[in-house]
Amino acid sequence: MQTSTRDRIVVAAARLLQRQGYVGTGIKQIAREAQATLGSVYHFFPGGKEAVAVAAIRHSGEEFAALLRQALDGEDDPAQAVTSCARRLAGDLRESGWIDGCPVTAAALETLGTDSEIQQVCAEALRGWERLVSDKLLRCGFSSQDARELATTVIGALEGAEVTAQVTRSEEPLLTVGRQLARLVRSYEARGLGLPAGSLGPETDR
Amino acid sequence: MQTSTRDRIVVAAARLLQRQGYVGTGIKQIAREAQATLGSVYHFFPGGKEAVAVAAIRHSGEEFAALLRQALDGEDDPAQAVTSCARRLAGDLRESGWIDGCPVTAAALETLGTDSEIQQVCAEALRGWERLVSDKLLRCGFSSQDARELATTVIGALEGAEVTAQVTRSEEPLLTVGRQLARLVRSYEARGLGLPAGSLGPETDR
DNA sequence: CTCTGAATAGAGCGTTCGTTTTAGCAAGGG
DNA sequence: CCCTTGCTAAAACGAACGCTCTATTCAGAG
Question: Which GO terms describe its molecular function (chains A, B) (predicted)?
């Protein structure tokens, strides 16, 4: 066996949660999809469905963080880095047939009223992503507060645009928001303080 | 009887869908909450659960549109109008104990894979809200394309910030995004063309 | 009055839910 | 050899699911 049963369960659960949400995904379905049996699932996750979901969301969160980090590091200019994130998200979303959206949103919204551990894991994932954006901006010379506020905005806007893109089955919302976010970032650079040399760049829009 | 049974069903379904999503809300629960019986529900909605959800989401969409319209019309400056929306959303969200979020997001995400009519209604609601913002910007002298792109961004960002605020149980994401969106809108006004007299206003930040 | 159709009320259908329980299997140390 | 340990397999539990069905109530038209 190439991958461990536990890992297969986590990966399958992550994909199913991303597509169908928490209540919409059954334990038996997860087991079937992971080519495992119900006994195995409860063996590795005595905490039941919620424990599986927590592990799966944590996994998805780290996976998305890696994607984000890659897109951010691929561009020197922070504004272009943000549009690059949006383009990447749009492309992946289209490829999946508009169904593989944000891996935490659906599960988070469903478990808000409860005192589940799930929302806590979702909050950690969100904060982690904001941290990635914030660090990138700090490295580009943004002030601590500007970086934090922009990071909240970037992650929030991408999150919302992703939902809009899924519902309308179009890349346009994500691409548009990516452009506008870049403009917002540049509005800080214009009056920026202590920016590294050359960071204002050639102002190419693509 | 003050309100009709049908209306009670729609209102109860709308609130439950907003809080628990589509799969998480049962027909019997809707009937109980609406002080109706299962027979009444199927009498008014022969289409079953999905038909109830469609009517409920449509209702929620119009309700939210009214809130949006009110917040937008309350301010002359479009930038301040946007922050006003964010503040209003943040306040309402806090008052509800962080559970009454966007009325369409949860239901939309859960039914994406299916060919349900629900996602279509959600798309209509989103487009309607964007239209409200876009019209406001047009009235303030923005170009057609700028208004459209900004409207997509504003609605998307508010959507995402609302989710973030719910998950982290804090008004801060919504308020921050509201501020940044205002800045983005002003970045157009600064180089704006053909703005109505006085629309640049006194530049107060609150 | 009778008749009709809208509206209400709820039992019960088959299915699936999350979970528990019991049994079976292969590997390894005594 | 036995016996523990880690893991798999499957049957079964009570509860809840969406939905169908029949029975009942009630208002207004003829």
Answer: DNA binding
